[in-house]
Amino acid sequence: MRVLALDAAFPFDREARMRKEHSQQLRLKIGIVGFGTFGQFLARRMVQAGHEVIATSRSPYHDIAASMNVKYFTDANDFCEEHPEVVILASSILSLEAVLAALPVQRLKRSTLFVDVLSVKEFPKRLLLRELPPEVDILCTHPMFGPDSGKGGWTGLNMQFERVRVAREPERQRRADAFLQFFEREGCNMVEMTCEEHDQLAASTQFITHTVGRMLGAMQLQATPIDTKGFQSLLSLVDNTANDSFELYYGLFMYNQNSTEQLDRLEKAFDEVKARLLQQLHDKVRQQIFYGESYSQPPRLALPDKTGGSSGGSSPASPAQAGSWQSAAAVAAAAAALEGQPGGEDGAAAAPTSNGSSNGSLGRLEATS
């Protein structure tokens, strides 16, 4: 028997059609406002995932956009008349307010989903709620990575988000879900939390990281032949923070009201560590002064009279004892210099005389047997 035709559809045909339909449902038309380094970073992945991406920015990025199959507009009016389903605000923190004010929102559909991807969250949340029409949807997000940390893939990297305002219509819910699923499919760890909670946590993590990196960068640390793994990690931190603009760092400070508190805590912690080091150093110096190796027992102190004798009636100091006190006075002066405080009562370290006395209060002390 010979089969001439097969009229029945195989099961895998139906599964293939379902996958295609599901993919089309997840496909979005995404517009990016601000096509700088981070905007391009997002656009490249979104195009690879099958989304249609358009972009606009102040600078001419036509060639870069064309290279990644992104349609680019220099005129924001033309951009908005393309009616993207999702508008990503990828400008800098400092310029967001001006960028939003210049965007002709009235040319967009009233159901447009606005998404911000800034590193601070409470500020853009308040701004979007205040300036955008009440009909549009708002999703505040923070991809906790960038072109450097995410160049090898996004798997395991954190993606914070808050559904600030998304209408209940199924289509608008589907669109917000599809946008978030893009990051989930890329392997991100999805973290849903409020913008206020985000800023509290980010001030003690991201802002502190940038601060320490910039402090170490200001020290101009260099690699050496004997670097430890820990030091290499510090150099890597310096490189990562140096690649970000100071404008971004200032934005993390200025537009997160929790940053000032963390900066104060960092300064206080440094002062405490420094004070502990100096206190331990002073304890060692005092031990040498009062219980140095030149003494067989703890010395008894007496003030000398003008003739070089002691006021308590004891005999003048021996040359060995005088030399010991000269050494002690030198150690005390060195400790005072380390602390940045003047030595002696008169504001300068006392210089011992030939008989073991000195012009300072410490130098006037003399050991007696």
From TrEMBL:
Keywords from the UniProt entry: Coiled coil, Oxidoreductase
Residue ranges occupied by any Prephenate/arogenate dehydrogenase domain in the UniProt entry: 28-307
Domain of life: Eukaryota
Transmembrane segments: none
GO MF term list: arogenate dehydrogenase (NADP+) activity; prephenate dehydrogenase (NAD+) activity; prephenate dehydrogenase (NADP+) activity
Any GO BP annotation: tyrosine biosynthetic process
Key word Oxidoreductase present: yes
Compositional bias annotation for Low complexity: 313-340
Coiled-coil positions: 256-283
Region (Disordered): 296-369
UniProt xrefs under Gene3D superfamilies: NAD(P)-binding Rossmann-like Domain (3.40.50.720)
Protein's name in the database: Arogenate prephenate dehydrogenase
Native source species: Micractinium conductrix
Gene responsible for this protein: g239
